[in-house]
Design a protein that fits this description.
212 residues; mainly alpha; single chain
């Protein structure tokens, strides 16, 4: 069934507007907002679904509400950050006539403060995810620029050993310093495996089901 003439005319007008180069920077900001919202939902929804049903107690309604809240927060924050970042980058380039590397840092610095500066579980996970990757990238950049000598041997095994040694030491003796979701995961792995009563909670279930 063909679209009504009014709708076809509207679509033609919108497509003509989207092709105008003079509006490209502003439209890129809007599409960045859209992509941030979509990507945030795609990343957070399955993660929240799995983690909530694995480790969170409560009714089904409470679990679904927690999943939706985490997904909305991740999606909206990422959308707002991309919008802020791209908008500030475009503004700086417009004011100075060209693009400089510092524009990216300043725009992201301000966006990070405004959007991800609130200390909640979602922002904490996102920031820690970025921290590990930023540290890796800075080490590689340091090697590329010659600030850090290139290793003569593969450092990955040593890195892995130190990382796992530290995280288990922290879990065993300084547990409150770890993020709650990591504490839950490690409790499941290293403490719940110390307790069982029969074959049901040794092999089938993690914990015995209460008798009705």
């Amino acid at each position: 069934m063909a679209a009504p003439p009014q709708l076809r005319g509207l679509l033609l007008a919108v497509n003509a507007l989207l092709r105008k180069r003079r509006y490209h920077a502003a439209l890129a900001v809007l599409k960045g907002f859209r992509n941030g919202a979509v990507y945030g939902a795609k990343i957070r929804a399955p993660h929240a679904l799995v983690m909530t049903f694995l480790f969170r107690s409560g009714s089904l309604r409470e679990k679904l509400r927690a999943i939706l809240q985490a997904t909305y927060l991740h999606s909206s924050n990422l959308a707002c950050f991309v919008f802020t970042y791209k908008g500030l980058c475009a503004l700086q380039s417009h004011l100075q006539g060209e693009t400089y590397q510092v524009h990216s840092f300043l725009a992201a610095f301000i966006g990070g403060f405004l959007v991800f500066g609130n200390n909640n579980s979602v922002n904490s996970q996102i920031n820690m995810y970025l921290l590990s990757r930023v540290l890796f990238a800075l080490c590689r950049l340091g090697v590329e620029k010659g600030y850090i000598p290139e290793p003569k041997w593969n450092p990955f095994p040593l890195y892995s050993s130190i990382l796992w040694g530290l995280v288990l030491w922290l879990f065993e003796y300084h547990r409150p310093t770890l993020q709650p979701s990591l504490q839950s995961s490690m409790t499941y792995l290293y403490e719940d495996s110390n307790v069982w009563h029969d074959i049901s909670d040794f092999l089938i279930y993690n914990k015995s089901r209460p008798l009705k």
